[in-house]
Amino acid sequence: MLAGELNKHLAIALVIAVGFAAVPLFVGERYLLGEVIVFFIWAMVAMNWNLLMGHAGVFSLAQLLFFACGAYGVAMGTQLAGLSIWLAIPLAAFAAMVLALLIGLACLRLTGAYVALLTFAIAEMVRILIVTDTHCFALIQNNCQQLFGGSTGFSRFSDFGFRPILRGDWIVGHYYVVWAVFVLSLVALVVIIHGRLGLAFRAIRDNVGYASSRGIDRQRYQLIAFASSALLTGLAGAVYAGHFRFAGPSLFEFSTLMFVLAMVIVGGLGSTWGPLVGAGVMMIVVEFAKELGDARSIVLGLSIVLFVVFLPKGIAGGVGGLRAIISRPAGQNRSTTATDTHQ
């Protein structure tokens, strides 16, 4: 059963990967390719948050902290330590995982809303420490650079290095680097969700007592989910920094948190592909809401409220319910209706 589900979803991942790999062959406009790159990045964050929250049942609000850790790791590695970006990217993702393990050991002793509050408090504390850092750590081009970038963050550090090679088509090189990381994250998530780990995660999420009676340790498996999600989220943050050549406190903004949360809720919390669909939908919504300025946050909040109230299982849940109704035998539908009417 597990093997069949895994193979089916791996086949879907392959189709998605091939489809996106062909995009630059038909789309040459830099802006559109850039938008797809942004979609890749935020879809990775949303899907990994869904792994943690929707499958493992850990209500963490520290996901953007791990994303920022990946971005800052690349910025600090290339600008302060002089590392190659290709070495800085995996090191930054590993740093995000280590940070998640440390936070998880402290937070996962708790459950539910307490985990959400504590993880959000830790992320906010880190943001404040970064913003208030004014100590000059190094001089870069005669400019004082703080260890963690201070309120302005890091910018104009090394990117993927395709500009001198591909010249005007450098965006294509960036596209395929982020695409490769996106596919890696996609495959890893499918293997986790539809493997034995995913089964253990959902058992803990649905019934901790039953899972414990079957020998599944809640803290251990939730810590594994926490670390796995942070590793892949940190990897997304690392390629974000490599593409935009930026890492700063704006990555911690509450509006960004709402943006990614909307992707998960709209797509379908606890589904496999829902957050990917939700990322695409919210990217389109935000694109049309750009002219609204600060009111864009209202649009994001309204999207979350509407889906929570009217479609709590998101787009994936709605489609799944519709498929179940269509595939149900006509006689069974009539019988069910008659029974409901009688009651």
Write the layout of secondary structure elements.
Layout: H1 2-21, H2 23-26, H3 30-55, H4 63-79, H5 85-107, H6 113-131, E1 138-140, E2 143-145, E3 154-155, H7 163-166, H8 170-193, H9 196-206, H10 208-213, H11 218-244, E4 246-247, H12 254-267, H13 274-288, H14 296-310, H15 314-327, H16 330-342
Antiparallel strand pairs: 1-2, 3-4
Helix pairs in contact: 1-8, 3-8, 3-11, 3-12, 3-13, 4-5, 4-11, 5-11, 8-11, 9-11, 12-13, 12-14, 12-15
Q: What does this protein look like?
A:
- This protein has 343 residues and is mainly alpha-helical.
- The protein has two domains: 251 residues, no CATH class; 89 residues, no CATH class.
- The chain is built from 16 helices and four strands.
- The strands form two sheets. The chain has a two-stranded antiparallel ribbon.
- α4 runs antiparallel to α5.
- It is globular.
- The two termini are 37 Å apart.
- The C terminus is likely disordered.
- It is found in: Cell membrane.
- This is Branched-chain amino acid ABC transporter permease.
- It is a multi-pass membrane protein.
